[in-house]
């Protein structure tokens, strides 16, 4: 499918869906191409219409008599048919997320998928992204990373989700609410080990903050000094998996001093990036040996 802009001559956009990235904090972080699209699209849709109106006003882009349609998690099923009908009528439809790049933790996914499945051209005007901005500032490896979105709110499911990610050989990136930040960091330490991490807050805004350190240190800091604003958490890769058996034995014994067999196996396997089953079996043997020695 060709880029719908490619056939556009004479100032207007050709029919299709245009996914436009918007600033994550600083209003000047918008591309010239995005402003051109905002000025010329036949129909505008936005996760937050008030935010898009303010952005257009700041940059002198007139809405005129063009429709501006709200499209978010709560009304997507109702608004989507209207936007698809506009596409079918040969209109250019622009969708903008509230902040950042559409499709990244964003309700526009269903709209883009429906448009593509219906055979309409879909293209993107890339720009600001909190995930990528945080990666550039965190000081953690960027050769491989995994964006995991928001973790579950409840403690048990949160730890389960972290365990599922424990063996991923990449920097882990999460969105988190400032209210849950200390608990999330503490849970990550318990499950993944005390890895190096970074908390990036209010990116591109006046009070931007990047704090780096072990998970335990960050958890203590944000428990004492509650965070405010938008938060991205990045967690470094676990220690190398090439660990000698004696090292594992020492680590498991140390973990068993304060943890159950199951928790010790989870903790050590996550920390060293090794398979859980052999670590669990080792923990069982060491626990049984400790009980017999103490008898």
Automatic annotation (TrEMBL):
Query: Per the database record, which ranges form the Tetrapyrrole methylase domain?
Result: 17-219
SUPFAM superfamilies named in the record: Tetrapyrrole methylase (SSF53790)
Any one GO cellular component localisation term in the record? cytoplasm
CDD domains, from UniProt? RsmI (cd11648)
Q: Name one GO molecular function term.
A: rRNA (cytosine-2'-O-)-methyltransferase activity
Under Enzyme Commission nomenclature, its number is 2.1.1.198
| Residue ranges occupied by any RsmI HTH domain in the UniProt entry | 247-286
Instruction: Give UniProt keywords alphabetically.
Output: Cytoplasm, Methyltransferase, rRNA processing, S-adenosyl-L-methionine, Transferase
Query: Where does this polypeptide localize?
Result: Cytoplasm
Catalysed reactions, semicolon-separated: cytidine(1402) in 16S rRNA + S-adenosyl-L-methionine = 2'-O-methylcytidine(1402) in 16S rRNA + S-adenosyl-L-homocysteine + H(+)
Major subcellular site: cytoplasm
Q: What class of enzyme is it?
A: transferase
Q: Which Gene3D superfamilies match?
A: Cobalt-precorrin-4 Transmethylase, Domain 1, Methyltransferase, Cobalt-precorrin-4 Transmethylase, Domain 2
As for family, the record states: Belongs to the methyltransferase superfamily. RsmI family.
HAMAP family for the chain: 16SrRNA_methyltr_I
**Per its UniProt record, what PANTHER family does this chain match?**
RIBOSOMAL RNA SMALL SUBUNIT METHYLTRANSFERASE I (PTHR46111)
Q: What does this protein do?
A: Catalyzes the 2'-O-methylation of the ribose of cytidine 1402 (C1402) in 16S rRNA.
Its protein name is Ribosomal RNA small subunit methyltransferase I
Its gene?
A: rsmI
């Amino acid at each position: 499918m060709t880029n719908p802009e490619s056939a556009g001559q004479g100032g207007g956009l050709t029919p299709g869906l245009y996914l436009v990235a918007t600033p994550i904090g600083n209003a000047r972080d918008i591309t010239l191409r995005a402003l051109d699209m905002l000025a010329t699209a036949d129909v505008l849709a936005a996760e937050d219409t008030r935010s898009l109106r303010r952005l257009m006003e700041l940059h002198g882009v007139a809405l005129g008599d063009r429709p501006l349609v709200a499209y978010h998690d709560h009304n997507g099923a109702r608004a989507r048919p209207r936007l698809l009908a506009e596409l079918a009528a040969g209109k250019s439809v622009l969708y903008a997320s509230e902040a950042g790049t559409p499709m990244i933790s964003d309700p526009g996914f269903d709209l883009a998928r429906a448009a593509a499945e219906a055979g309409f051209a879909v293209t993107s005007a890339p720009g600001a992204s909190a995930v990528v901005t945080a990666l550039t500032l965190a000081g953690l490896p960027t050769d491989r990373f995994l964006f995991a979105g928001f973790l579950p709110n409840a403690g048990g499911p949160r730890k389960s989700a972290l365990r599922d990610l424990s063996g991923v050989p990449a920097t882990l990136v999460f969105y988190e609410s400032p209210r849950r930040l200390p608990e999330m960091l503490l849970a990550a330490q318990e499950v993944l080990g005390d890895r190096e991490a970074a908390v990036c807050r209010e990116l591109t805004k006046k009070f931007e903050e990047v704090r780096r350190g072990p998970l335990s240190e960050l958890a203590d800091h944000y428990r004492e000094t509650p965070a405010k604003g938008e938060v991205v958490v990045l967690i470094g890769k676990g220690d190398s998996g090439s660990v000698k058996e004696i090292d594992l034995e020492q680590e498991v014994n140390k973990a068993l001093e304060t943890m159950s067999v199951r928790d010790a196996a989870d903790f050590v396997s996550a920390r060293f990036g090794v398979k859980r089953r052999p670590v669990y079996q080792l923990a069982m043997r060491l626990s049984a040996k400790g009980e017999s020695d103490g008898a």
